[in-house]
Design a protein that fits this description.
Elements lengths: L1 H17 L2 H10 L7 H20 L3 H24 L3
Helix pairs in contact: 1-4, 2-4, 3-4
Length: about 90
């Protein structure tokens, strides 16, 4: 039974990790960040960074890995909101 829940955990981690891929691709191509919220991406990235730190603390490879992947896709979007957004 533990294996079943581990598989669910890995699938969930994978889904969360790739959730920002379409937005990242679109943003890199178009440089259009006008409708993206800096506050939302800031909070999300801060939260994900917290999960990465927590994953290291509890020595959890899945928690650390999947959140690092998430950060790799969401942090560049946040950066682009500062670089390209016209306020």
């Amino acid at each position: 039974m533990d294996t079943f829940f581990e598989i669910i955990g890995y699938l969930a981690g994978f889904c969360i990790s790739i959730a920002f891929v379409p937005q990242a691709i679109k943003t890199f191509k178009t440089k259009d960040v006008q409708s993206l919220s800096r506050v939302t991406y800031s909070i999300y990235n801060f939260g994900i960074l917290g999960w990465v730190i927590y994953g290291f603390y509890i020595h959890s490879i899945p928690v650390t890995f999947f959140n690092m992947v998430s950060l790799c896709f969401s942090a560049p979007i946040l950066y682009m909101t500062f670089k390209y957004k016209k306020d």
